[in-house]
Write a structure and sequence with these properties.
alpha/beta; 13 strands; binds L-homoserine
Length: about 350
């Protein structure tokens, strides 16, 4: 049987874009053997690293080595160079546009325009970009539905740990009454490091070096990233209509090392907790610093790990934990979404 080919255009080749390339390279043989699928990346476009489009497919190892040695994708030996992200979206031939540019929770840009344009052109979209999904979930979903294409965004919450598919598909038919958890890897990493004696600044630098933090890390430490994730859960899981700006928000910048260490002496742990709940027919959300007993399930979640508890009508409490940030980890979410699109539309 000839191999099925799904052509992917990657917009944004930062930590997550490269993480997706690495996750795909690791799993490529399995995709061929188990799913008879060749996931072919035909275009990559990035503001910093340049762009290349080759309809015959790109050698991802080569693209990675060019960028990781500080070169430009324009040095790739074949294909069309110099297309902007929007030109790539409009002019390249592909099936799925993968949008992985940095998050902006005020405007959603440039991701919002990229996603709307790809949907307008009838292309499936996968994104890990929290800006567009937290700000325009309903509009984008309507656009995708009108055109009969998929819009998937598993990696926007808890990176590759599959919580959105669990909440939206796995718990299908149940009523999710409340979701709460640790939704920012950087902040949880910083709090854990502070407990071990590191300063806030040192821990943040380490989180940046490891590729956990946002391009602008104030998004993490001031709680915007967790607020965007809470808004995504509120809208896409619980039917709410809210923006990150509607989430009651507290970051971790006011937390001192003394406070973190003292909490442990008192049998507690300082955690940055997001909550989304139903009340009087409406959905509300908050992110705040909380001191939880050491015996609380969220207190056992340390480092870059995240965790989420969903309280539902039919199941009671469901607890999920796993990586909350990281290139390959978030790249895995992209891979699972692209595969879901393949299963739904191409088999
Ligand atoms: N900066 C985010 C975090 C990345 O630390 O959780 C994953 O969304």
């Amino acid at each position: 049987m000839p191999m099925n080919v799904l052509r992917v255009a990657v917009i944004g080749f930062g930590v997550v874009g490269r993480g997706f390339a690495k996750a795909l390279l690791r799993r490529r043989r399995t995709l061929a053997e188990e799913f008879n699928l060749n996931l072919e990346v035909v275009a990559i476009s990035d503001l910093k690293w340049g762009s290349v489009y080759d309809e015959d497919g790109l050698d991802l190892e080569r693209c990675l080595s060019i960028v990781e040695s500080g070169g430009s994708l324009e040095d790739y030996p074949s294909g069309v160079k110099g297309l902007s992200s929007l030109e790539t979206i409009r002019e390249a031939e592909y099936d799925v546009m993968v949008e992985l540019t940095p998050t902006n929770v005020e405007t959603g840009e440039p991701g919002l325009t990229h996603i709307a344009e790809a949907l307008r052109m009838g292309r499936h979209v996968v994104t890990t970009n929290k800006g567009p999904i937290s700000l325009a979930y309903w509009d984008l979903t309507e656009m995708a539905e009108e055109r009969g294409v998929s819009l998937r965004f598993e990696g926007t919450v808890m990176s590759g740990t599959p919580v959105l598919s669990l909440l939206r598909e796995g718990l299908g038919g149940d009523l999710v009454e409340e979701v709460y958890g640790i939704l920012n890897g950087t902040n949880n990493f910083i709090l854990t490091q502070m407990e071990a004696g590191k300063s806030f600044e040192e821990a943040l630098r380490e989180a940046q070096r490891l590729g956990y933090a946002e391009a602008d890390p104030t998004m993490d430490v001031e709680g915007w990233d967790a607020a965007a994730k809470a808004a995504i859960i509120a809208n896409a899981v619980m039917g709410g209509r809210m923006k990150p700006q509607d989430v009651r928000r507290e970051g971790i910048t006011g937390v001192t090392s003394e406070e973190v260490v003292k909490a442990v002496r008192e049998g507690k742990r300082v955690k940055h907790v997001a909550r989304v709940w139903r009340e009087g027919g409406r959905v509300y959300a908050s992110v705040a610093v909380e001191k939880l007993p050491l015996s609380h399930p969220l207190s056992t979640v340390t480092g870059v790990k995240n965790a989420l508890v969903a309280r539902t009508e039919n199941l009671g409490e469901v607890f999920v934990t796993g990586p909350g940030a990281g290139g390959v980890e978030t790249g895995q979410a992209v891979l699972s979404d692209v595969l879901a699109i393949y299963r739904l539309h191409y088999r």
